[in-house]
Write the structure tokens for this entry.
Amino acid sequence: MKKRTVLVADDEVNLLNLLKDNLEEEGYEVFTAADGEEALKVWVQKRPDAVVLDIEMPRMNGWKVLEEIRKVTLSNEVPVILILSAYAQHEDIQRGMALGANKYLTKPFKTRALVETIEEYLKGK
């Protein structure tokens, strides 16, 4: 059985490594990116099963990455299930959902909740 793949993009290296380690322990193959441009390149090359984005990243923010992904794929095809951010205002959450995010979590968050959310969206795929 092919491993499911997840792209995690965040400019906080410690958090990026923590998420990668946790997802790999759960059996996922994880691709990482430290900025938005790199995230978009990895997404185009690897076409992961799910994407986890931070909003505030150098070179291209998570909003723009999400917009670019949604230009070519629907939310039920490749879920961008999380936009991890300190942006927790109602308007930010609405913006994320309007752009096509499947789920919006704010920092700080529990990695177990992240894993469970990914599993929920990839169930049956």
About this structure: The domain at 5-28+35-107 is CATH 3.40.50.2300 (Rossmann fold). The chain has one domain: 5-28+35-107. The two ends are 12 Å apart (CA to CA). Residues 13-25 form the longest helix (13 residues).
